[in-house]
User: What shape does this take?
Amino acid sequence: MPVISIALLLFLIMDPFGNLVVLNALLSKVPPGKRRLIILREAAIATVILLLAAAFGGRVLVLLGLQEHSLRLAGGIVLFLIALGMLFPSRRMMEEPAEEAPLIVPIAMPLIAGPSAISMVILFAEKHTVGMVCSAVLVAAAGSTLLLAASSTIFAFLGRRGATALERLMGMLLIMLSVQMILDGINAYLKSRG
Assistant: This one.
């Protein structure tokens, strides 16, 4: 089923397992009840951003004069860089925990709805119906939100090493997907020239 395939890929790109470590560091000074509310609010904002990208992203591309192969190449490169950051964790959003609840940045965007997730949603909306892509966004966002809302419990169960190992496994999968996106973009570019 295309919706499940798209949702699974978006779920991987949203990287909820990798974000567990960052979220726990960012919200370490926030009480658990308030932490869940912050995560739910930020996940809702990220979902709206992705739904807007699905509905209007293609029109923005047309206005900017961008073609599908450009989006594939750019999305593949961004996804590759994010996946490298997952494999070699030198990427830190913030060194110090937040004193007050963050709004939109950095949790909703770029942690949940990052550039690669937005570009993938736009790309899917070019190939499939907007309704199908929006359904996939909602499924992926729901799964990601459930994991992130239970982040303190999951993080306590997995521990730092377990969360890091899971993040690196996701990073390897995303590197393979990003290379495929780049190859598809090159192929689409060569076909448009020939």
